[in-house]
Specification:
The complex is a heterodimer of chains A (about 120) and B (about 110). Chain A has about 120 residues and is an all-beta fold. Chain A is built from no helices and eleven strands. Chain B is mainly β and about 110 residues long. Chain B has no helices and eleven strands. The chains are: A mainly beta (about 120), B mainly beta (about 110). At the A-B interface, strand 5 and strand 10 of A face strand 4, strand 5 and strand 10 of B.
Chain lengths: ~120, ~110
Protein backbone atom coordinates (compact mmCIF):
# COMPACT_ATOMS: atom_id res chain seq x y z
CA UNK A 1 0.00 0.00 0.00
CA UNK A 2 1.32 3.41 -0.99
CA UNK A 3 1.84 5.68 2.01
CA UNK A 4 3.03 9.26 2.10
CA UNK A 5 3.46 10.82 5.52
CA UNK A 6 4.28 14.52 5.82
CA UNK A 7 5.82 16.23 8.81
CA UNK A 8 7.33 19.57 9.71
CA UNK A 9 4.32 21.86 9.51
CA UNK A 10 4.25 24.56 12.17
CA UNK A 11 3.44 28.16 13.04
CA UNK A 12 6.18 30.48 11.79
CA UNK A 13 6.58 34.24 11.58
CA UNK A 14 6.70 36.06 8.25
CA UNK A 15 10.23 35.95 6.86
CA UNK A 16 10.95 32.70 8.66
CA UNK A 17 11.94 29.28 7.36
CA UNK A 18 10.55 25.78 7.60
CA UNK A 19 11.49 22.39 6.19
CA UNK A 20 8.79 19.89 5.33
CA UNK A 21 9.52 16.19 5.04
CA UNK A 22 7.60 13.34 3.45
CA UNK A 23 8.30 9.69 4.21
CA UNK A 24 7.26 7.38 1.38
CA UNK A 25 6.60 3.65 1.56
CA UNK A 26 4.81 0.91 -0.32
CA UNK A 27 6.37 1.67 -3.71
CA UNK A 28 9.76 2.09 -5.37
CA UNK A 29 10.27 5.75 -4.50
CA UNK A 30 13.29 6.24 -6.74
CA UNK A 31 11.28 5.54 -9.89
CA UNK A 32 8.63 8.26 -9.50
CA UNK A 33 8.41 12.00 -10.00
CA UNK A 34 7.26 13.56 -6.72
CA UNK A 35 5.38 16.78 -6.07
CA UNK A 36 4.21 19.20 -3.40
CA UNK A 37 0.70 20.65 -3.69
CA UNK A 38 -0.82 23.12 -1.24
CA UNK A 39 -4.27 24.29 -0.24
CA UNK A 40 -4.94 27.48 1.69
CA UNK A 41 -7.67 27.14 4.34
CA UNK A 42 -11.06 26.97 2.64
CA UNK A 43 -9.51 27.55 -0.80
CA UNK A 44 -8.59 25.55 -3.88
CA UNK A 45 -5.54 23.51 -4.80
CA UNK A 46 -2.23 24.98 -5.94
CA UNK A 47 0.63 22.94 -7.38
CA UNK A 48 3.91 24.07 -5.80
CA UNK A 49 6.84 22.07 -7.16
CA UNK A 50 7.99 18.71 -8.44
CA UNK A 51 11.22 16.80 -8.87
CA UNK A 52 12.36 14.12 -11.28
CA UNK A 53 13.42 10.66 -10.14
CA UNK A 54 17.14 11.34 -10.57
CA UNK A 55 16.99 14.93 -9.26
CA UNK A 56 18.11 16.32 -12.61
CA UNK A 57 14.93 18.39 -13.06
CA UNK A 58 12.87 20.51 -10.71
CA UNK A 59 9.96 22.84 -11.44
CA UNK A 60 8.26 25.52 -9.33
CA UNK A 61 5.21 27.72 -9.43
CA UNK A 62 6.28 31.34 -9.93
CA UNK A 63 5.08 32.48 -6.50
CA UNK A 64 7.66 30.32 -4.69
CA UNK A 65 10.63 30.48 -7.09
CA UNK A 66 13.77 31.59 -5.29
CA UNK A 67 12.21 30.96 -1.88
CA UNK A 68 11.34 27.24 -1.87
CA UNK A 69 13.57 24.30 -2.76
CA UNK A 70 12.32 20.79 -3.42
CA UNK A 71 14.72 17.90 -2.88
CA UNK A 72 14.71 14.18 -2.33
CA UNK A 73 16.82 11.38 -0.86
CA UNK A 74 16.11 8.17 -2.72
CA UNK A 75 18.17 6.15 -0.24
CA UNK A 76 15.85 7.32 2.55
CA UNK A 77 12.63 7.25 0.48
CA UNK A 78 12.07 10.85 1.45
CA UNK A 79 10.91 14.07 -0.16
CA UNK A 80 11.59 17.53 1.23
CA UNK A 81 10.49 21.13 0.79
CA UNK A 82 12.72 23.84 2.19
CA UNK A 83 10.70 27.03 2.56
CA UNK A 84 12.48 30.34 3.17
CA UNK A 85 11.29 33.93 3.33
CA UNK A 86 7.82 32.71 4.22
CA UNK A 87 4.85 34.99 3.63
CA UNK A 88 1.38 35.11 5.12
CA UNK A 89 0.03 33.90 1.78
CA UNK A 90 2.07 30.68 2.09
CA UNK A 91 -0.29 29.58 4.86
CA UNK A 92 -1.77 26.28 3.70
CA UNK A 93 -1.97 22.55 4.07
CA UNK A 94 0.98 21.12 2.15
CA UNK A 95 0.45 17.74 0.53
CA UNK A 96 3.22 15.38 -0.50
CA UNK A 97 2.17 13.75 -3.75
CA UNK A 98 3.31 10.99 -6.07
CA UNK A 99 3.08 11.63 -9.79
CA UNK A 100 1.21 9.09 -11.88
CA UNK A 101 3.63 6.62 -13.53
CA UNK A 102 1.98 6.83 -16.94
CA UNK A 103 0.11 10.11 -17.16
CA UNK A 104 1.74 13.46 -17.81
CA UNK A 105 4.03 14.85 -15.14
CA UNK A 106 2.06 16.77 -12.54
CA UNK A 107 -0.78 14.25 -12.48
CA UNK A 108 -1.02 13.03 -8.90
CA UNK A 109 -2.18 9.49 -8.17
CA UNK A 110 -1.40 9.34 -4.45
CA UNK A 111 -1.52 12.02 -1.78
CA UNK A 112 -0.36 12.28 1.80
CA UNK A 113 -2.66 13.47 4.57
CA UNK A 114 -1.09 16.93 4.54
CA UNK A 115 0.78 19.09 7.02
CA UNK A 116 -0.36 22.58 8.05
CA UNK A 117 1.96 25.54 7.67
CA UNK A 118 0.77 28.75 9.27
CA UNK A 119 2.64 31.98 8.64
CA UNK A 120 1.58 34.66 11.07
CA UNK A 121 3.03 37.19 13.47
CA UNK B 1 -2.82 28.58 -18.21
CA UNK B 2 -6.06 29.46 -16.42
CA UNK B 3 -8.83 26.95 -15.91
CA UNK B 4 -12.40 28.08 -15.36
CA UNK B 5 -14.81 25.58 -13.87
CA UNK B 6 -18.57 25.92 -14.01
CA UNK B 7 -20.68 25.93 -12.10
CA UNK B 8 -18.83 26.77 -8.89
CA UNK B 9 -21.49 24.86 -6.99
CA UNK B 10 -24.58 22.83 -7.72
CA UNK B 11 -27.31 21.04 -5.86
CA UNK B 12 -28.41 17.64 -7.09
CA UNK B 13 -30.30 14.57 -5.96
CA UNK B 14 -29.18 10.97 -5.76
CA UNK B 15 -29.42 9.30 -9.20
CA UNK B 16 -29.24 12.64 -11.02
CA UNK B 17 -26.93 13.06 -13.98
CA UNK B 18 -24.35 15.75 -13.22
CA UNK B 19 -22.05 17.57 -15.64
CA UNK B 20 -19.19 19.87 -14.67
CA UNK B 21 -17.29 21.87 -17.25
CA UNK B 22 -13.71 23.09 -17.32
CA UNK B 23 -12.47 25.63 -19.85
CA UNK B 24 -8.78 26.35 -20.44
CA UNK B 25 -7.47 29.78 -21.43
CA UNK B 26 -5.47 28.14 -24.21
CA UNK B 27 -5.33 24.73 -25.85
CA UNK B 28 -4.04 21.92 -23.66
CA UNK B 29 -4.57 18.97 -26.02
CA UNK B 30 -6.05 16.24 -23.78
CA UNK B 31 -3.82 16.94 -20.76
CA UNK B 32 -6.70 17.43 -18.37
CA UNK B 33 -7.13 15.72 -15.00
CA UNK B 34 -10.09 15.50 -12.62
CA UNK B 35 -9.92 15.07 -8.85
CA UNK B 36 -12.53 14.61 -6.14
CA UNK B 37 -12.02 16.05 -2.66
CA UNK B 38 -14.13 15.46 0.43
CA UNK B 39 -13.99 17.75 3.49
CA UNK B 40 -10.86 17.25 5.58
CA UNK B 41 -9.41 14.74 3.13
CA UNK B 42 -6.76 14.75 0.44
CA UNK B 43 -7.93 14.85 -3.16
CA UNK B 44 -8.48 11.63 -5.08
CA UNK B 45 -7.57 11.11 -8.73
CA UNK B 46 -10.59 10.29 -10.89
CA UNK B 47 -9.63 10.80 -14.53
CA UNK B 48 -6.46 11.65 -16.43
CA UNK B 49 -5.75 12.28 -20.06
CA UNK B 50 -9.19 13.88 -20.28
CA UNK B 51 -11.03 10.55 -20.41
CA UNK B 52 -9.00 7.72 -18.87
CA UNK B 53 -10.57 6.41 -15.69
CA UNK B 54 -8.10 5.85 -12.85
CA UNK B 55 -8.03 2.26 -11.56
CA UNK B 56 -10.74 1.64 -8.99
CA UNK B 57 -12.90 4.64 -9.90
CA UNK B 58 -16.56 3.71 -10.57
CA UNK B 59 -17.66 3.72 -14.19
CA UNK B 60 -20.41 6.26 -13.49
CA UNK B 61 -17.63 8.85 -13.76
CA UNK B 62 -16.56 9.84 -17.25
CA UNK B 63 -14.57 12.62 -18.84
CA UNK B 64 -14.40 14.09 -22.30
CA UNK B 65 -12.98 16.97 -24.25
CA UNK B 66 -9.88 18.20 -25.98
CA UNK B 67 -8.27 21.54 -26.70
CA UNK B 68 -9.95 24.07 -24.39
CA UNK B 69 -13.30 22.57 -23.36
CA UNK B 70 -13.72 19.59 -21.06
CA UNK B 71 -16.47 17.91 -19.09
CA UNK B 72 -16.76 15.58 -16.13
CA UNK B 73 -20.00 13.61 -16.03
CA UNK B 74 -21.43 11.56 -13.19
CA UNK B 75 -24.11 9.44 -14.81
CA UNK B 76 -26.05 8.59 -11.65
CA UNK B 77 -25.06 10.55 -8.56
CA UNK B 78 -24.50 8.45 -5.46
CA UNK B 79 -24.45 9.60 -1.81
CA UNK B 80 -20.68 9.20 -1.65
CA UNK B 81 -20.21 11.53 -4.64
CA UNK B 82 -21.11 14.69 -2.76
CA UNK B 83 -17.77 16.48 -2.74
CA UNK B 84 -15.75 19.19 -4.47
CA UNK B 85 -14.34 18.44 -7.91
CA UNK B 86 -11.24 20.06 -9.40
CA UNK B 87 -9.84 20.01 -12.91
CA UNK B 88 -6.10 20.41 -13.53
CA UNK B 89 -4.08 20.98 -16.68
CA UNK B 90 -0.77 19.18 -17.03
CA UNK B 91 0.01 20.30 -20.58
CA UNK B 92 2.62 22.83 -19.49
CA UNK B 93 4.38 24.04 -16.37
CA UNK B 94 3.24 25.03 -13.91
CA UNK B 95 0.30 22.65 -13.67
CA UNK B 96 -2.77 24.66 -12.68
CA UNK B 97 -6.10 23.83 -11.11
CA UNK B 98 -9.58 25.11 -11.68
CA UNK B 99 -11.40 26.82 -8.84
CA UNK B 100 -13.48 23.77 -7.97
CA UNK B 101 -17.13 22.73 -8.19
CA UNK B 102 -18.92 21.83 -4.99
CA UNK B 103 -21.63 19.21 -5.47
CA UNK B 104 -24.21 19.41 -2.69
CA UNK B 105 -27.29 17.44 -1.79
CA UNK B 106 -30.58 18.94 -2.93
Amino acid sequence: EVQLVESGGDLVQPGGSLRLSCAASGFTFSTYWMSWVRQAPGKGLEWVANIKQDVTKTYYVDSVKGRFTISRDNAKNSLYLQMNSLRVEDTAIYYCARDHPIAASGTVDHWGQGTLVTVSS
Amino acid sequence: IQLTQSPSSLSASVRDRVTITCRASQGINNYLVWYQQKPGKAPKLLIYGSSTLQTGVPSRFSGSGSGTDFTLTISSLQPEDFATYYCQQVNSYPPTFGGGTKVEIK
